[in-house]
Hints:
By secondary structure, the chain is mainly α. Helix content is 76%, strand content 0%.
Amino acid sequence: MKNARNLIAATALAICAVFLIFSSIMMHPFGKPSDSSMDDYIISNAQNETGANNAVTSVVFDYRGFDTLAEATVLFTAVAGVIMLFRREKHE
């Protein structure tokens, strides 16, 4: 039983190592994006389309608003779970 568990753990570790090595080999070189058409579009049109002076703000709150809302929901849920986990019961 212990040998089977060790074999499964070693196999899972090997698979993770292969994925990490493959991912690091396939990454784009730092500072050289493969396609910058979306970047150029956002830089050119962000102020006209969103009314925000900052392009980063327009991306976070206007172009990716639902994604930001989902991230805030996940963060709120995690904080609420931690608070519930560590809350102490008052005994009378």
